[in-house]
Design goal:
Blueprint lengths: L6 H21 E6 L9 E5 L6 H11 L4 E6 L8 H7 L3 E3 L7 H12 L3 E4 L19 H8 L4 E8 L12 E7 L14 H27 L2
Parallel strand pairs: 1-7, 2-5, 2-6, 3-4, 3-5
Antiparallel strand pairs: 6-7
Helix pairs in contact: 1-2, 4-5, 5-6
Protein name: 1-acyl-sn-glycerol-3-phosphate acyltransferase
GO molecular function, one term: acyltransferase activity
Keywords: Acyltransferase, Transferase
């Protein structure tokens, strides 16, 4: 399936490509290990979430694979001056966390996948808060999206380097990303039940942790 995008949206995405690339280069020295992101067709990109700025690094990795990412982002981002306008123009997906309408974000992401686009999300649903900076408990949203779209490639990404704290916003730092191969979820084919969602979530988080180990090695040898 090729991505379905109108000429007008192509223009907006092109502007988004350029802006994200420039801002990402300003905020991060991005080092990424290329993986299995296909050039066409629906993709679900799942990653760990260390800082408020690491989505820029993940976006840079997606753009490096010639794909434009559509992130599930907290609704508050869409109210930020400038950032919110860009998020809306480039088709990012607001998530009203903790509300009964949060499921609508998955429906919007599902529509993007039906159009052959790339959706990026953080299964934890928040910044990582574990002392060792490894991912903590995850929600089942990414797994439910994957089960709903068995044709979509689920690609794990491990990020290492950026640390929480406002001082990291004001100087350029290195972000190392390892982009893994497509996950094999064939064992859950045809299932959409809660148990399957939990099992697939565990498989996704295991794959992300494996990619984090690769990103840590990149960080040590940078």
């Amino acid at each position: 399936m090729r991505e379905v995008t109108s000429p007008r949206q192509h223009a907006k995405n092109a502007a988004g490509f350029a802006l994200v690339w420039c801002v990402a280069k300003t905020v991060h020295r991005v080092r990424y290990r290329a993986g299995g992101i296909p050039r066409t067709g629906p993709v679900i990109l799942v990653a760990n979430h260390l800082t408020m700025t690491d989505p820029l690094a993940v976006a840079r990795a997606a753009i490096g694979h010639r794909r434009f990412p559509h992130f599930l982002a907290m609704q508050e981002v869409f109210g930020w001056p400038g950032v919110g306008a860009l998020a809306r123009a480039t088709g990012q997906i607001p998530v009203a966390r903790g509300s009964s309408s949060a499921a609508q974000a998955l429906d919007s992401a599902s529509e993007r996948l039906d159009q052959g686009q790339l959706v990026a999300l953080y299964p934890e649903g928040r910044l990582t808060t574990e002392p060792d900076r490894m991912p903590g408990p995850a929600r089942t949203g990414a797994a439910r999206l994957a089960l709903r779209h068995p044709d979509a490639a689920v690609i794990p990404v491990g990020t290492w380097g950026p640390q929480q704290g406002h001082h990291h916003i004001w100087h350029r730092h290195t972000a190392c990303l390892s982009v893994g191969p497509r996950l094999d979820l064939s064992a859950w084919a045809g299932r959409t039940d809660d148990a399957a969602a939990r099992e697939v979530t565990d498989a996704i988080m295991g794959a992300i942790r494996a990619e984090i180990a690769q990103a840590q090695q990149m960080w040590r040898s940078r």
